[in-house]
Design goal:
The longest helix has 33 residues, at 35-67. It is elongated and about 75 Å long. It has helices at residues 10-17, 35-67, 72-95, 120-128. The protein is mainly α.
């Protein structure tokens, strides 16, 4: 077979020989953007990414605590920092009137594991119990 050569039965290739239909527009020609909705969507996106990072930090902190890699002072500092971060996130969600930061990523699922789940200290208490 030579480069660029197409093999196949004529009846199989006949499907491709017809005229190509014009693609139909699925989206409106103009997008109606409401500045308030755009701002709210942007805030939700940014806070969702920050929440994802916060959850990842919590998980890493729990691994380090469980592994015994930290001194008691470091554990205390880490706990205080994560508690403040969680409180700040709650304040920002309230300020921007956002209930759910868990973005739907379509076939990939949702961005966050369990947005309504317990925070750092509820998980930490579960380890000590």
């Amino acid at each position: 077979m030579k480069y660029g050569e197409v093999r196949g039965r004529p009846e199989d290739l006949a499907v491709f020989a017809g005229a190509i239909p014009e693609p139909q527009a699925r989206l409106p020609r103009r997008i109606d953007l409401d500045p308030e909705k755009v701002e709210r969507g942007l805030v939700q996106l940014v806070l969702s990414v920050v929440e994802l990072l916060r959850q990842l930090l919590e998980k890493q902190a729990l691994r380090r605590i469980s592994g015994g890699d930290l001194t008691s002072h470091q554990v205390e500092q880490l706990g205080t920092t994560l508690m403040r971060l969680e409180q700040e996130m709650a304040g920002l969600k309230e300020h921007f009137e956002l209930d759910d930061l868990n973005l739907d990523l379509g076939p990939l699922g949702h961005l966050l594991d369990d947005p309504a789940g317990p925070g750092f200290f509820a998980k930490k208490e579960g380890i000590n119990s």
